[in-house]
Amino acid sequence: MDSIYLVIVIILLALAILDLVVGVSNDAVNFLNSSIGSKVAPLWVIFLMASIGVLVGTLFSSGMMEIARSGVFYPDKFTFPTIMILFLTVMLTDVVLLDLFNTLGLPTSTTVSLVFELLGAAVAVSLFTVWTSGSGESLAEYINSGKALAIIGGIFISIAIAFVLGTIIMYISRLIFSFNYAKPFKYLGALWGGIALTTITYFAIFKGLKGSVLVTDEFLFYLEHNMGSALLYTLIGWTLLMALLQHLFRVNILRVIVLAGTAALAMAFAGNDLVNFIGVFMAGFDSFQIAQGVAAGGGDINELYMGKLSEPVVAHFGWLLGAGVIMVLALCFSKKSRTVTQTEVNLSRKGEGIERFSSSPLSRSIVRGSIAIGKPIGKLVPKTVKEFIDKRFAPVPLENNASFDLIRASVNLTISALLISLGTSLKLPLSTTFVTFMVAMGTSLADRAWGRESAVYRVNGVLTVVAGWLLTAFVAFTAAFLVGLFLMWGGKIAIAIMVLLVVFLLYKSSRLHTRLKDREERQQQFLSTEAELITETNKELHRVMEKALSVYKRNIEGLKDEDRRTMKKAQKEANELYERLKDKRKYEVVPTLENIQLNALDVEQEYVQLVDYSYEISKALKAMTEATFEYIDNNHTAFSKEQIDDITDTYKTLSEVYSSYAAMEKTGDYSQFSTVTSLRETILELIPKMTKRQIKRVKAGESNTRSSILFLDIVNESKIITLQSGNLMKSHRNFKIQYEQVKMMEAKRIKPANY
Q: Which of 142, 254, 503, 555 is the most buried (most CB within 10 A)?
């Protein structure tokens, strides 16, 4: 047998391991968002419960491995070589697709991805076989299209039902318990816990244990035919246990419910979705073993049809345990799993803050329409009813800066478990991701987490994620179809090219994720103490001025040498400075002012101005470098020596301004600040002279139109940089002097007169 098939099996194994990592990173949101969002326990406890659920779930194999073998196509129509190409196509596509969603922080359905990748690959391999063999067979003889249609129907059903039911149940729950739920929960908590845990138990049995290698068919048959009695006894047992824990041992049973639900969802995820990650590898490995047996007997594997893959399969315990260990490690150490989880938590959190998504015309229209519909409805509701509802929804501060409280977390888990269990019992192909995400969005809407300040961003976030889901099927099918055709046509060379391409794409996505994560972390930072404010303000002044001079110098060098590479670096530096200061201005200033109470308006005002002046400098640098890079990139006429000299004079004087202020700032003696002002005025006097000299060059025919426009643009941006740099230094001086005065007055217990 050709060694290429052994190589394919090894590649499938490596891709399966990668798929486990990227798959868990994507699906971790399904069972982590409620615990992490409510901060039910320390992070290590949450991950411990989820890890236990994942390990147990992998051993409770749901018997769904057949999906990868015969759920979408008829294996008896495929020969061993073609089916190995089919499986390789699916794994290559799946790893890249899921990793892309993880990098962008968008939860998607691994089930939908797998099914449509199998469908795309099967169509590609089938069409290539029909075209090259000339057998006259039709595509319908190879493909089981009914499965794909069932998946599509399940998508729309699960999205709508999960959102609506989550909204209704959360609204009723909040009316019962309110945000200040301690008192009502004292009387109703045990029953609430009993209902929730009974639902979770039902979910674990039907979604987690069905088809398990550790539970007999007789036991499941008995449960299925005596479910009413079993649920009643379970409800009574859980309710009594919750009452005992709550009233006798003073345990917060909401924490028990949320952690138990987390473990149950993790168990069901691992048991049911494991096929999405290792099912294709297992099918390829079994195919290889079948072909080995035929080859050993002297048979021709090129004519070996894989009808045996339609037979029932029992996954090997060792493979399941190994997959479980990899999933736990990925769960605990994957940074991308945190990114996907943060997307859902961010969209469902209570209160204002940094929004991961911007608004869109559609989201604005939806919010505007909702407000328009809500106003007349609100007028019809009696005043007493409105007052009662508003009182129940009156927010209270959340412990540990949680995104939402334990009531909502328990509703998320309970409703998700109930819907997935119901879908399983009705044999509907529900997606765990779709259900848990839309329930979370429904409960956050009902909980009034989407206020006027955040609604357009949250709605657009949900629309973006849902659009990603709907695109998943199309992208998965198309990508697998194209890759499948390429592999069938190119053979061994195509396989080598695709493996290298996948490695390259995974590397690039890792770099992209790092950049996105760094920016997100930067947006979430704010100063929380006076010491941080003083230190950061001092550092920021020097960072901005040093970077401004560096970019300005590169800009001159790029023009002088007509060096595209130097200008590219200058443009990159300017853009990075601009983006950082834009985020600082947008996300840091107000939270910092809210967290640090200086009791000195003048000091706080100077801090705001420092950030504004820095931002204006960065904006001018960005405009200057973009215009210069475009000029050089288009190979326009080089600047004359006189033009370069004029700009260089500005740079030298600006450097002298900064050096003078840096010396004063170091000693704390600002008595010679007039030197800074004088040098700034020198530049401002130089700028109109530069403009006049350029006009003379134009009239003398020494400078063309494009060169003149760019020169005047640089002069204008230089004027802005000079003015704002002077303002920046002046504000920094005032900030330091006034802060020292405030500290002296506080030491003497004197309140600032301006406050």
A: 555
Tokens, residue 295: 């080859």
Could you report how far apart the first and last alpha carbons of the chain are, in Å? Answer: 86
Helices of type H across 144-279: 145-177, 182-203, 217-225, 227-243, 253-274
Contacts of 279 (CB under 8 A, 6+ apart): 64, 65, 67, 68, 69, 114
Q: pLDDT digit string (tens) for 625-635?
A: 999 999 999 99
Pick the closest to residue 441 from 420, 474, 464, 423 (CA basis).
464
CA-to-CA separations, 460 to 346, 408, 412, in angstroms, rounded: 13, 22, 21
What is the pLDDT, as a whole number, of residue 399?
77
The residues, any chain, with a CB within 8 Å of residue 412's CB and separated by 6 or more, are 33, 34, 166, 436, 439, 440, 443
Q: What does the pLDDT read at residue 750? A: 52
Secondary structure E strands in 379-492:
none
The CA-CA-CA angle for residues 402, 405, 411, to 5°, reads 135
Q: Is the pLDDT reported for residue 191 higher than 60?
A: yes
* Domains within the chain, CATH numbers bracketed: 4-348+362-518 (no CATH), 529-747 (1.20.58.220)
* Residue 349 dihedral angles phi and psi, to the nearest 5°: -70, 160
% of residues, the chain, pLDDT over 70: 88
Give the mean model confidence (pLDDT) for residues 469-479: 86
Per DSSP, 209 falls in state I
What does the alpha-carbon distance between residue 237 and residue 222 come to, in Å, rounded to a whole number? 19
What are the tokens at 22? 């990227």
Tell me how far apart the alpha carbons of residues 694 and 565 are, in angstroms, rounded to a whole number: 27
Measured distance CA(698)–CA(691) in Å, rounded: 11
Residue type, 231: L
Say if CB 254 and CB 41 are below 8 A apart.
no
